[in-house]
């Protein structure tokens, strides 16, 4: 089990693995980062199954497919490191990657194709229920037993496992309204409620049955000899399940000379977004069939993995549906609460780094906050309930190891405890810091703007949701900058994968929902996926707290992406082309109204990047007179220098260290020295570098091109106009503690 237990934006994932086969159920946002953290090799996954075709279950798929595709062409800037070990060595897959999901699967993958080049990834997409085929190597069909009467689709069938799906589709219109009314009359809050029901009830859901074959009983050679079966090949045929002719002239069946077979275990993956889906599941008869299976085969292990929201699990209807299951040691329930209840943050490396930075500069590095957990549901079952946590294993084979295995989680905890080993002493840090501050970083003074400093509340607060380039790393998420305007709402600049989770860790669950409700505008710099792949998740989460359309300003290609996405989950937005917000253009009325509410102006600036319609942006506060400029992805650009003149804060991409000019030219990115020079030429008060190649795990190379007005961005680093003056002090302190090292050579090891 993994991912999605500490925020509300992602459904947990489940990995079913055998000696040779690997099957993944759900791939939410952050899965690449989770794989790096815990050394899971995506290259070995045979198929991905989605319980829903929504961003909660599939938000990590675009980034994962993009990484796989780029690896085939060697396009990613990871210097032969982490990503290559996790996703393969640039070799095409020998077999296709299966991708299964309920209604909307085709539309979802078609949406991906608008901005992710996946034509070279061997991908077999199957929308369950559309008549897709069955993978069926040798072995034939399994015995259906009590499950024979359940309407389901067989997706995978091989010697290891049969995977089938039961699709749940809630009737639209009055049926759902009556269901909510009935729940309220029963005195119980609807799992959909006023906010989630309207969004989630329309979603088709796939319940997955994972059936492992029966284990043949022990062959009894003495009994075979007594029945006249000669030793040799005939014995082998009986062991393989074939009948043979005895020396007495009659047929001997395998069951005549074998001990009774041991029933194969069944695992059921259940994700029920609303009570309406629960009622649909009841109507399908699956739970009743499994209860009958458990009664007729009392020793047959049946494991339910519940991924449903906590309010569904805690409902009386849920308890009633599962009450018919026999209470025995062979039937178990693993409850993976989709409610933010995980005690440990999923990304422990990033959390540990943030904690260390907080100890140095608490004003810039707030501690990660946990989501506000909802009500647990262990009481839904009289016995057999297991609280699912990240990295929990449940062994289905061999039977001698049947049950829970916490070893992976314990090892992860041990790694966290050993993290401080080998850290530099405070004396070493002081010497390195003094050398950097006195001998390396050059003095550069810019007059302090009137808006900077002062006491009390400030007009502008900036939080970096992600500071990495192309793909996430253990310490850096994808591009995103959240600007909060005191008492007026906020604007998001770029929205890479995982932005919702980052905002949750910054503000906590309840305040995060308020941040979403107050979000007025999202501005996207260009069409590359790492700058907007988090938008669908953000739109979906926001639709649960407000019906006000979100204004999205972006390159014209983004309009098509949003239109395709709306076929899967309709969320109202107002799209504005960046070209309509350049200097001298008249912004559409909807955008002008939102900017007026925020008390800012917005001007997009065409920049130089490897795709058409790439932009930087300049924001200006109308009350305090501050100016914030963000370059987007670009080579040094004269138009941006002119537009950013006199910036209070200039945020510029610095993908590569000095000395990698050819790479920067080829990919149309900037060196750190070039970004610093742009800030100097624009007379910026503070220049903040961001969008770092993942070859720099914690901090980029700090050299003599850095000045005393240069800052380095970190994930969830936060500053405001009162603290901005001291921000450059972070650079020598942090660089002294975290020297630049290559990635752990063990990363990617499974």
**Count of individual helical segments:** 25
Report the mean per-residue pLDDT as an integer. 84
Question: What does the overall shape look like?
Answer: elongated
> Radius of gyration in whole Å, from Cα?
28 Å
The description of the largest β-sheet is: 7 strands, mixed
Class based on secondary structure composition and strand pairing:
alpha/beta
User: What is the number of E strands?
Assistant: 29
Note poorly predicted spans. Answer: 76-89, 132-143, 174-197, 741-750
Strand order of the largest sheet: 6-7-8-11-12-13-14
Helix content: 25-40%
Q: State the distance separating the first and last CA atoms.
A: 15 Å
Estimate what percentage of residues fall within beta strands.
15-25%
Question: How are the secondary structure elements laid out?
Answer:
Blueprint: E1 14-17, E2 22-25, H1 31-38, E3 47-49, H2 55-58, H3 61-73, H4 82-87, E4 97-101, H5 105-113, E5 123-127, E6 153-157, E7 162-168, H6 174-185, H7 193-200, E8 205-211, H8 221-226, H9 233-239, E9 244-245, E10 251-252, E11 266-270, H10 275-284, H11 286-296, E12 302-306, H12 310-313, H13 316-322, E13 331-335, H14 348-360, E14 385-387, E15 393-395, E16 403-405, H15 407-417, H16 426-440, E17 460-466, E18 480-485, E19 489-495, H17 499-507, H18 509-518, E20 519-523, H19 535-543, E21 550-554, H20 556-566, E22 573-577, H21 589-598, E23 600-606, E24 615-621, E25 627-630, H22 638-643, E26 649-653, H23 661-667, H24 672-681, E27 686-690, E28 710-712, E29 718-720, H25 730-737
Parallel strand pairs: 2-3, 3-4, 4-5, 11-12, 12-13, 13-14, 19-20, 20-21, 21-22, 25-26, 26-27, 27-28
Antiparallel strand pairs: 1-2, 6-7, 7-8, 8-11, 9-10, 15-16, 17-18, 17-29, 18-19, 23-24, 24-25
